[in-house]
Amino acid sequence: MAGGGGGEVEEEGGGNVFGEESSAPVELNLTALMDILSNLLFFLLAAFGATIVMGINATVPVQSSSSSLATVTAAVSVGTNGFDVSVMGSAQTPEALDKWRKRIPLREGIPDYEALTTHLLAIKQEYPKSDTMILTPETGIDYGAMIRTMDAARETQVKVAGATHVIPVFPTVVVSTIIK
Questions:
Q1: Which of 50, 80, 108, 130 has the lowest CB atom count within 10 Å?
Q2: What is the model's pTM?
Q3: Residue 124 sits in which domain range?
């Protein structure tokens, strides 16, 4: 078979693959089919790319022009020995930030999520406008431990005058990596 310009396909020798005599050369115009397939491919790629991005629920902290004096960012490192908690802020003194630095060890071999929530709630009470936590897992920490840590930081139940209220602690979580 020889392919000519313009998408034509002709058979040489006057016969087909079965040895039968063909009556006329066959011409196929594939332009319309290729247009449809290329458009379909572009739409599928765009939809697939958007699906992957939508599956990751994370935010990135941004620098705003208005500086609030009453906000900090909590930093929680999840390791095999427990949690390391610290806070970062641009308007506070290093001494004010260092008082929130705390290591929360494992309790009976498992992470102490209740102690983490209690400590983050104390930070939230001091800086009520704060809502962002940076989560840094050590190498080898499984996904389930990271999810439980995010759940412990997201919200907690508080009893006030006999009524139970769910209050947000640090609902915005940014997952980071350890830089060595």
A1: 108
A2: 0.60
A3: 73-175
